[in-house]
Amino acid sequence: MRSYTSVFVGQLLLATVCCSAGLFFLFVGYDAWSDAPGWGWPVLVFGSGLVITVVIPVAATAAARQMFPRITRGHRVKGGRTSYEDDTFVMWAPRSQQGSAQARLARADVLEASLSRYRPDGESTFTTHYGNYTPEEFTPLIKLRLRVHDTDDTDAATAFEVTGEWRVPSLCLSAVTAGRLVVLVDPSAPGVERTVTPHWPRSALLAGTRTCRVTDLEGRTAAVTRRVERQLQQMRISRDVGGVAMNGDTIDLRRLDPHTAARYAALADQDRTHPEAQAPVSEPGEEARRLADQLPGEQGTFGSVSRGWSRRGGVLVRARFLELRARTTFQDHGPVLDTILRIQPPDGTTPFDAARRLTVPMNYLTALHRTKEIVLSVSPSGASYDVDWARTNLLAGVTEAKVITLDGRELPLVGRPDTIWTLMNLLASHGLSNPSPVLDLRKRRMREVAGVVLDACV
């Protein structure tokens, strides 16, 4: 990952080129002023050049702060923490098509998924589409094969399959990977293929990417994340009444009208009588739906580290996204989102929440149903936290990690984030860089930690 200094120098050079006219005016005005002292046009030219020149470092600093994912004390939320629970995840995604009044909300299983087209023209710059949260240029077109359950019976004999291409908002890509969608099925005449339209924000909720709780009329709160049948029934009630607001990730029945609250309460009573088991984090066959390798984003690695940072006490910490909110600004490799993170300081003090606008890579967004964790590199002084997307994507399983032993055996670390985290910290504490997802212990510089690495992998 590039350092803040390198990003700032690059932006300073760019700003200097773009504002070179200011330097020209500065020198012309100064030269003319020295030949003809007074308050005439030389002063005006010199002053204009001075103003434009001052803008150069200011613009470079602002651009570097926007591009470099650094979190400082200034990003801490007021009071240190939000009201969110540690396991809360709130996602404000773009709205989907509402469909006709006759359309029925149904569950659809994703059998296969592949990228059809994603070709933005923004390169690495920031592109803003005012008022448009899902411009086609930055919304990948995904080909999906779905099995749609148009009745409450999930028996495959009563379902039908459909294949098509749909634009998937990047915030909702994890619903495709998880394999559970909410779709609107329009009724059709006999012999006519039914129209199926995915509803993406509801799909993220049904997939378990966004957490969900319900507070009943007595004030008791129950988690319903990945309770698929209950959530689908709740969504149908919400659609019937024109929408039900969530406070964060919670539906509070005490804030609803009596009729709607009674319908939700009946579902809660039914669940207490016949509890529904949680659905799996991901439906079987995830490999056929894996989009991380087809979408842009930084490759996962064990990370780079400078020996000076390590010697002075720099460390790695894990943080967790509590909230992601869509905006209308994008980069080629991902959307710019308003985020809230909960950070555990390395000294073991009370965690704090930070609000930071970040570009989140698309390949990471495909794994949100599994993890909301990110890796931060902490400065030796503890004053700043830099988001490390390379380490984050390895920890999230976006890129598969493996260790090669001294005798050439491969040890895959798929599904072992705690082991990967241990190895990252081991390498960082020894000042060892490994900008690759493969940790090869046969390399000379890795031999000093080979024994500890193997013990961690057992």
Give the CA-based shape. globular
Mean pLDDT across the residues is 87
Oligomer: single chain
Helix content: 25-40%
Low-confidence stretches: none
Structural class: alpha+beta
End-to-end distance: 30 Å
Number of strands: 20
- Beta-strand percentage range: 15-25%
Can you give keywords for this protein?
nine-stranded mixed beta sheet, globular, alpha+beta, 458 residues, five-stranded antiparallel beta sheet
Describe this structure in words.
With 458 residues, the protein is an alpha+beta fold. It has 12 helices and 20 strands. Strands 1, 2, 4, 12, 13, 14, 15, 16 and 17 form a 9-stranded mixed β-sheet that branches. It has a 5-stranded antiparallel β-sheet with strand order 6-5-3-7-8. Strands 10-9-11 form a 3-stranded mixed β-sheet, with no helix packed on it. Strand 13 and strand 14 form a beta hairpin. It is globular and about 70 Å long. The two termini are 30 Å apart. 34% of the residues are buried. The model has no long low-confidence stretch (mean pLDDT 87).
